Amino acid sequence: MTRFRTLCMALTGTAALFALTAAPAHAAPGDVTTSCSSVLTPSGFVDVSWGYSSSCGTQSFSPNIKQIKQLTGLPVGTVVQACNSTYQPFGWVQTASYYSGSCVSSSVPSFNNNAWTLKRVS
Hints:
The protein is an alpha+beta fold. 16% of the residues lie in helices and 30% in strands. It has one domain. Strands 1-3-2 form a three-stranded antiparallel β-sheet. Strands 4-6-5 form a three-stranded antiparallel β-sheet, with no helix packed on it.
């Protein structure tokens, strides 16, 4: 019985980790999904928030999880707030830079600008 329980817990943990690390397959424009910080932000997405989750397998409380937003397909003129931990996609320009507590992506944060306002121009 103990082996069965251990196996079930291991499979559940693996499934949860996979769900957090898998890239969003068919995200609609503007959709926000969550992934572990070790997963690269896909093309056409930007980071919009950072946090901590034990599901991403770390022993410290450093930011290890991020929410990412799909920008591909949003209409020209759309304005979004994004963390500067990724580059803005092609067709988007930075219109402002500022500090945001939700964009702290390091265990040694500073109060330097870490977020952008982005606008779709093409």
